[in-house]
Amino acid sequence: LLNQNLFDLAGKVNVSFEFFPPNSEQMENTLWQSIKRLEGLSPKFVSVTYGANNSTRERTHRIISKIQKETSLVPVPHLTCIGSTRAEIVELAEQYWQEGVRHIVALRGDLPEGENSPQNQMYALDLVKLLKSVADFEVSVAAYPEVHPDAPNPQFDLINLKRKVDAGASRAISQFFFDTETYLRFRDRCVTSGVDVEIVPGILPVTNFKQLLKFSAITNVSVPGWMHRLYDGLDNDPMTRNLIAANVAIEQVKVLAKEGVRDFHFYTLNRSDLTYAICHSLGVRESLVEETSLVVNG
Ligand code: FAD
């Protein structure tokens, strides 16, 4: 039944892909190979994360410009405000607008390790307002099904999300999660709290379980016992980890699709293989456009 529903979804699912700015020539090659391969799946947009220090920031801009010039994709830069002045943010936003960028993922960001006094006291809410005052950008923001680690309580975090939406954000992209029920309950709470935008689930195919454990502890994401059991004994077996990662994520998107989710955001980690396979299982195909036009024309 689950598979039957998925086949019915062909052509009705929107996907978006997230990349990060690489810091070596080899990683840069991997990134562009991945972008080229995933381009064929016609994502709604592709986003590029924004780092904590200036060199990473410059790289985000460069990759966004290159995607804009050399592909058919819609590039969406992430922008964080915690380590920047308002003037710096306005300057970058104006530059993006002039270059044809119309959509930004607006985030607070985190301070670089060792730094504890922010340049300003801005939160993502202030950034959404600032961007909207620069130009009529489409703005996406972050959402946390398991609550952001700095939030005093879940209700506060939800109100913060509502404020970001009320200030003009038209989409929330979720932190990654593995307990699908948690996301679904969070989505329900968003609806009852009047957060009337899509809460797009962030899907992370887990190929490096050890790294995930570190990252999930910092980000307040729970890693269920069944995942520990699945990855147990695979520390030196990347190929099996890849197969498991695809399987876990495919199961996750199947359940979400059955629950009515139609937009999915993939944390690709600059790799295309797993994301491509998961999209394929959702009925997202390269040939779909041609097939549809054949049917229409034929
Ligand atoms: P906010 O929405 O501002 O919330 C941050 C915290 O502050 C929350 O706990 C909130 O409840 C609390 N808060 C809000 N307002 C107030 C207030 N007035 N007083 C006290 N507390 C308040 N990081 C990067 O550096 N670069 C990226 O490209 C990037 N991309 C991301 C993409 C996605 C989809 C997600 C989910 C996260 C991303 N992050 C990125 C991480 C993000 O920057 C961090 O999680 C950061 O700690 C919070 O950012 P935010 O936009 O959610 O902040």
Furnish the topology, listing elements before pairings.
Elements lengths: L1 H7 L5 E6 L5 H15 L5 E4 L5 H17 L4 E6 L5 H13 L4 E5 L16 H11 L3 E6 L10 H13 L2 E8 L3 H13 L5 E6 L5 H11 L5 H7 L6 H21 L4 E5 L5 H9 L6 H10 L1
Helix pairs in contact: 1-10, 4-5, 5-6, 10-11
Structure notes:
The protein is of the alpha/beta class. The chain has 12 helices and 8 strands. The protein has an 8-stranded parallel barrel, surrounded by 5 helices. Helix 1 packs across helix 10 (238-258) and helix 4 crosses helix 5 (124-134). The protein starts with a helix and ends with a helix. The model is unreliable at 289-294 (pLDDT under 50). The site of flavin-adenine dinucleotide has 22 residues, from strand 3, strand 4, helix 6 and strand 6. Pathway: One-carbon metabolism; tetrahydrofolate interconversion; Amino-acid biosynthesis; L-methionine biosynthesis via de novo pathway. It is an enzyme of class 1 (oxidoreductase). It catalyses: (6S)-5-methyl-5,6,7,8-tetrahydrofolate + NAD(+) = (6R)-5,10-methylene-5,6,7,8-tetrahydrofolate + NADH + H(+).
